[in-house]
Automatic annotation (TrEMBL):
Protein name (Swiss-Prot/TrEMBL): Transposase
Region forming the signal peptide: none
Gene3D superfamilies from the UniProt entry: Transposase IS200-like (3.30.70.1290)
Region listing for Disordered, in residue ranges: 135-163
Domain of life: Bacteria
Length: 163
């Protein structure tokens, strides 16, 4: 009975929301992030998601956000500060002030696109040097290969002859 009920609910849910597959299919996404510059970019992306979605006017208003811990100083036991966050200042107050400025600023469209593409396609988010290190260690590409190109260019012809 429970199995039948579950199957019917999934069919109803998928029909209602225009989805396919299981309820949890494709829900988990992750990507490897270069800490130095990109971790704060990811923080900014995550904190501003509810704002971009029109759910709240400011990141501090979203209940499930770490902004209240990182930007306001409300202690949340589940939040463990990243070393890059700790580098924002020498005191809690300094870090919170810098974090508020980071989240207050408008996020660059190119950064939003980079985070989304890296996450959705499981590419590495980081500097070219970091990506090269990851490619060397894992033996897999850290970003998509370029497509197409000018087939009449000298570089294309040299590469084609080498293969």
């Amino acid at each position: 009975m429970m199995q039948s009920l579950g199957r019917r609910y999934v069919q109803y849910f998928n029909f209602t929301y225009g989805r396919t597959g299981t309820l949890w299919e494709g829900r988990y996404k992750s990507t490897l992030v270069d800490s130095e510059r990109y971790v704060l970019t990811v923080y900014q992306y995550i904190e501003l998601n509810p704002v971009r979605a029109g759910m709240v006017q400011h990141a501090a208003e979203y209940t499930w956000s770490s902004y209240r811990h990182n930007g306001v100083g409300k202690r949340i036991g589940l939040v463990v500060p990243h070393e890059e966050y700790l580098r924002l200042g020498k005191t809690d107050g300094e870090r919170q002030q810098h974090y508020r400025l980071l989240i207050q600023g408008k996020m660059e469209d190119r950064d939003i696109i980079a985070v989304r593409q890296a996450t959705n396609k499981a590419w590495v988010l980081g500097s070219d040097h970091f990506k090269a290190q990851i490619e060397e260690k894992t033996g897999r590409p850290a970003e998509p290969a370029s497509r197409g190109g000018d087939r009449r260019s000298a570089q294309f012809l040299v590469n084609r002859v080498d293969q």
